Amino acid sequence: MYTNSEKFLTAFNRIEKILKTSMYQGPDIGFSKTVRALRDSNALIKRYSDDLLEFAELRNAIVHNKIDVTHAIAEPHNSIVARIEEIESELTLPKKVTPLFSRSVYAFQESTLLEDLLVIINEKGLSKFPIYNDTEFLGLLTQKGIANWLAVADEPTAPSVKTTLVKEVLRYEDSDNAQFISSDTLVYEAVGFFKEQISQGRRLEAMLITKNGKSSEKLFGIITAWDILEIP
C-alpha cells in the first residue's frame, strides 16, 4: 500500500520529466525555474503554474525532511494527491478541441435568404453561422449582426427578411469576430486565444475548427465564448 507521499512524489517526478522534455535541449534547470520558463509559451503550464510551484515546495519539504529512508515527515492530504495526479494526467494526455467540441456546424452560402437562416435560429437555438461563397469563407454572421441590420432596415421601404440575402446582412457584422484553429489545438490554447483577444479589446464570437486551421477546409466544430466560460 503506497503512502500519500509516495503517490505524490511519483506523480511529481513524472510531471518533472514531462516539463524537462518540453525544454528540449535547454539548460538543466530546477523544477520551479522550468515552470516559469514554460508558462509563457505553454497554455497548460500557464494554467497550472501556481499549483506546480506549490507542489515544488511540498516536494522539497518531503524529500529534505524525511525521518528516515522510509518515512516522510510530511504526508500530503488526499486532495493534494488527487490534484497532482489530475494535473499529471492532463499534461500526459492534454485535451484537444476535437473531439470535445466536434459538432455539426450550420453554415450557409451567401445567397441564402435571411428568412431561411432565421428558421434555424428559431428551431435550433443557434446564433452563429459561417457564411461562404462556395468554399471561400466570407465571415461569421451572429444575432448581433442581424440586430444591426434590423435597426437599419426598420423602415417602410426597407427590404424584408423574405427577400434579403445573408450576404447583405453580413455587411453589418464585425469582420474579425471569428478565428480558425486546427483540430489538434489544445483546449487551454483555445481558452488563451479568447482571453488574448479580450485583452486587446476584440470581441471574438467563435473559433471554427478545421483539420489544419484553414478557412477553406471542412468544418469539424465550433467553440463559442459561452463554451469557453463552461470549461473548468
Which labels suit this protein?
CBS_dom_sf, CBS domain-containing protein, CBS-domain, CBS_dom, CBS domain, alpha/beta, three-stranded mixed β-sheet, 232 residues, 6 strands
What would your notes on this structure say?
Keywords: CBS domain. Pfam families: CBS. Residues 101-160 form the CBS domain. This is CBS domain-containing protein. There is one protein chain. By secondary structure, the protein is α/β, with parallel strands linked by helices. The chain folds into 2 domains: 4-94; 100-229, CBS-domain (Roll). Helices cover 49% and strands 12% of the residues. It is built from 10 helices and 6 strands; from the N terminus they run H-H-H-H-H-E-H-E-E-H-H-E-H-E-E-H. It has helices at residues 4-22, 31-38, 43-64, 78-92, 97-100, 114-124, 143-153, 166-170, 187-199, 225-229; strands at 108-109, 128-133, 136-142, 178-182, 206-210, 221-224. The protein has a 3-stranded mixed β-sheet. It has a 3-stranded mixed β-sheet with strand order 4-5-6. Helix 9 links the parallel strand 4 (178-182) and strand 5. The two termini are 32 Å apart. The model has no long low-confidence stretch (mean pLDDT 88).
CATH superfamily of the largest domain: CBS-domain
What share of the residues lie within helices?
40-55%
Largest sheet: 3 strands, mixed
Count of helix runs: 10
What is the arithmetic mean of pLDDT? 88
Backbone structural class: alpha/beta
Shape: elongated
The CATH topology label of the largest domain is CBS-domain
**Oligomeric form:** single chain
Strand content: 5-15%
Question: From the coordinates shown, what is the CATH architecture of the largest domain?
Answer: Roll
Distance between the termini: 32 Å
Low-confidence stretches: none
Radius of gyration over all CA atoms, rounded = 24 Å
**How many separate domains make up the residues?**
2
Element-by-element helix/strand order: HHHHHEHEEHHEHEEH
- How many strands? 6
